[in-house]
Amino acid sequence: MAVQSRTQQRKNRHRRARTRLHGTAARPRLAVFRSNKFIYAQLIDDDARKTVASASTQQKDLRGQLQGTATVAAAELLGKTIAERAKAAGIAQVCFDRGGYRYHGRIKALATAAREAGLDF
After folding, report:
1. What mean pLDDT comes out for the span 86-108?
2. Number of other CB atoms surrounding residue 104 within 10 Å
3. Contact residues for 92 (Cβ-Cβ < 8 A; gap 6+)
4. Considering the entire predicted model, what is its pTM?
5. Sign of CA dihedral 92, 79, 16, 104
6. 87, 98, 88, 89: which is closest to 120 by C-alpha?
7. 51 phi/psi in degrees, rounded to 5
8. What is the rounded CA–CA span in Å between residue 13 and residue 36?
9. 71-95: pLDDT as tens digits
10. What local confidence, expressed as pLDDT, does residue 2 receive?
C-alpha cells in the first residue's frame, strides 16, 4: 500500500464525512475549505446542487478589513460574513462540513463566529 499525501488523507476523511452530511434547501451544508493563503465557505443545497451563498477571504470587500487572509481573525470575520449572507438568503440552520480538517484553529474560529452571528448548527 502506497503512502498517501496529507491532501489525499484529508480528502478521504472528507468523503467519509460526506456520507453522513447532506444539505437541503431548509438546512444547507456549510462547507469550509482552508488553503495556505485563503479560507472559503459555501452554503450548499445538495438536493438542487446549488450554492446558496458563499464568502472567502479572497474577496475584495473582506480583504480590506484584514491584516492577513489566512489567520484566525480572518476566519472569524468570514464566519460572521457567511452568517449574514445566510440570513439574507433566509437561512437560519445549517449542517457544518469541516471538509476533513480538524475542528481546531481557523475552522473552529469560523464555526464559533458563525454561531455567534446567529447560525444554528
Report:
1. 97
2. 9
3. 86, 118, 119, 120
4. 0.92
5. negative
6. 87
7. -90, 120
8. 19
9. 999 999 999 999 999 999 999 999 9
10. 83
SS (H, E, C) the chain: CCCCCHHHHHHHHHHHHHCCCCCCCCCCEEEEEECCCCEEEEEEECCCCEEEEEEECCCHHHHCCCCCCCCHHHHHHHHHHHHHHHHHCCCCECEEECCCCCCCCHHHHHHHHHHHCCCEC
In a 13 Å sphere around the CA of 67, the CA atoms on its Cβ side amount to 4
Q: How far apart are CA 35 and CA 119, in angstroms?
A: 24
Q: Which three cell numbers stand for residue 118?
A: 446567529
For 44, the grid coordinates are: 450548499
C-alpha to C-alpha distance for 31 and 76, rounded to whole angstroms:
15
Q: Which residue carries 460572521 as its cell?
A: 80
